[in-house]
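Here is an idea for our session: we take a single protein and study its fold together. Which protein we use is up to you, so please pick one and set it down. Once you have written the record down, we can walk along the chain together:
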Amino acid sequence: MSSSTIMSASENPATSYLDGPRLLADVGGTNARFGLERAPGQIDSIQTLRCADYAEFALAVEAYLSGSEHPQVRHAAIAIANPVQGDDIKMTNHDWEFSIETTRRRLNLDTLLVVNDFTALSMSLPHLEQSHCIQVGGGRALSGGVVGLVGAGTGLGVGGLIPTEGRWIALGSEGGHVTFAPSDAREAAVLAYCWRTYSHVSAERLVSGPGIEMIYQALSDMQGVAKPEPLQTAQIVERALQGQDGLCMEVVEVFCGMLGTVASDVAVTLGTLGGLYIGGGVVPRLGEYFARSPFRARFESKGRFSNYLARIPTFVITAPYPAFVGVAAILSEHLGGGNAVPILEKIRKARDQFSPAEQKVASLILAHPRAVMSEPISEIARRADVSQPTVIRFCRTMGCQGLADFKLKLASGVTGTVPVAHSQVHVGDSSLDVGVKVVDNTISAMMEVRDNLNADTLSRVIEVLSQASRIEFYGFGSCGLVAEDAQQKFFRLGIPSSAYTDPQLQEVSAAMLKSSDVVVVISNSGRLRHLAPAVEVAVHSGATIIALAPSNSQLAKRAHYTLAVEHDESSMMHIPMVSRILLLLLIDVMAVGVSLNRSSPFAELQRQAKRGILTHIASLGESDSDKITAEGDGKPAQSKRSDQEVTLSPNVISHIK
């Protein structure tokens, strides 16, 4: 166990956080490092615990906190050497597995953020002291330029920082797994050696700690060494720096050249005019040798782009705990920056000043903040045993305009910075865990629908629906419920509409459609099957077909327009029918769009003109009306739907009889 203190000179550590110190952690496969940030930039009480000594991640946290003298910790941010997607964390290089939300509640935290360790390292760059970075070679950083990051350690990490609106956004990447490209004959021979074992050789395979051992084996083979001495990375580096082992010196030389190529590739790919930083555990061990190694020459060796790269500075990160600086910055931004007090802490501190009824609301929120975020006011009032006006009064006491505004501020202090993603529901999950995961899964799917909306298609769909003489909605099962919901919404907009959930009735109705009618076919699978006859008849009738279905489905290929709903519900267990929510969401989008479209002045003029034409037609004799064409399409206007020629399939005729 080790303990130390670090301080960032770029911050003002004079004032401690009003809500107490913040817990920071950097978790790897072997060690978990913990520290406390007591004020902006002031990180101390740093300790390193062996992961193998604790069966669970939460036990390691509890062990650290029990040995530190401090007030109750309310907020924590964790950098972990693992992908972070959703609530479940399962480490690839250790046996720890945990739920972020369950751990937050177990540790009695208001906030628990978990981010990838390379994301944290990227976010540390704008906050590092100058003494914690050593420039290698020339170049000058462009203020406000994109910053690149390459880290050689157990693996090869690649990342970047993009400046936007006064803040930095970390760019996630798996760039270490790009295909390795040799730059000379020697590296080509090393690659050929690797191909004996691996069909694909990534940059990480060679430009990393384990990669140094691979280079050593390859060069030994090239030099005809039958049984090379089994050396580990640390031993190879040590012998190379001592200058007494020619093979080890060549290995480190080759490694530094390869790293220069990778760094230059990242620089030209991202346009890192703000500088390129080297992190990880390997390069700092090379000390002064790295500055005179082939790294910088290889970095600038880019043919026609050599001058471009010569202007980009490269730095080696020497800070002892840069991940702490990064997660501290992420947590600070999440909580509002500076010395801002999150809303849960404000409630906790002001609790005694509330009225007895408001104290009941406060107790409920402090005990179940996530539940309150998703519940309506009636349920919040019921659970707190107060009236609904009391809930509103409490929100205004907290400086919010109402319940909606309060929930937004509450969500800012409870949820993490990691985008909501799919979280698998497991047997044995608590009721709250199930509720949180189902809600998170639904939100994630809704965000995906939002991001995949095609503006042109949506605009055209809304225009077609706005001009429709009649709209019919077809669906089965849960999609039938969506169809009935859609029919009610569009009927309220003054558009003649119907919903059919029976295949035979769908086919009968489709046969009586006109070219000015629209059919919205709803299917979470997009397979035609029972829908095929009705769709074909509707197409033959000249109606416009709009599909709410997966984009590459059979239905989508047959429809005129498709609003895509991509959600896999093939699992036989834990099916929350998220697709039904997504379909209802698209129905709402269309209904709101049509409502706005029909309420525009131009649309009202069109309707008035159309009503005038229909009134004129009604005043004419029957012989005259036959001569008038409908809306300029060159076809005789038909005033009665029964005048259309209808062709029905035999099974529908049988059904009618």
